[in-house]
Design a protein that fits this description.
globular; single chain; 9 helices; alpha/beta
Amino acid sequence: MQPLEPVEQEGRSGGRGIYWVLKNVVLGPPLRRLFRPIVEGEHHVPRRGPAIIASNHLSFSDWLFMPLALDRRVTFVAKSDYFTGDGVRGWAQKRFFAGTGQVPIDRTGGRASEGALRAGLKVLQRGELFGIYPEGTRSHDGRLYKGRTGVARLALTARVPVIPSAVIGTDTIAPPGKIVSKIVSPTVKFGRPLDFSRYEGMSEDRYILRSVTDEIMYAIMELSGQTYVDMYAPVAKELAARQAKQDAEDETSPQA
């Protein structure tokens, strides 16, 4: 694959400074001492040049432990609400998310995927690493769900390799609704780069996009050891919520 032509972005150095302080002074050292994360396959991540890191998603803490495993900065997208708060709290929140390598994206409406694509392309054009969770949301039950094809579209458009990644144990550390539940050592794995140059010029072919995405998800599944479910995570969450509601109604029903 031919590397993207690098471009500069305004304010890049300031964000890098905050990122370095957070990773190496404020957050990194205590997280390493307390949780002792295990890292495997970090040599698969290129030391320079653009690449996409595609990972499973079990907990909000994933975006802490996965970047912590690498020397290079990993940029993600985050809800734009995190960047628009008022007052001192809003300013601190904005600086925190910007400094930890995240860029704002409006996830409401049908143009969210286009915004994420543009954001990812800008990061990759700078020769950096872009992190993405193809499932689109956290798994509610620890299983691996069907990937959105945005990761494939980005890889083919940018013509960069995809590094499959897996986090294991973060859902035990910080399950939904809790900041920290248990102190265990999470594992972060990186697989061999996936090269999709054979599909160059086919970034709008939905069958190719699905094939590429499924290949990425299979690589993530092999790394994580998760059970794969051929269903989008939000749909599965909704079905689980409906079932839980029905079970609760059955328990309280006078006919039960």
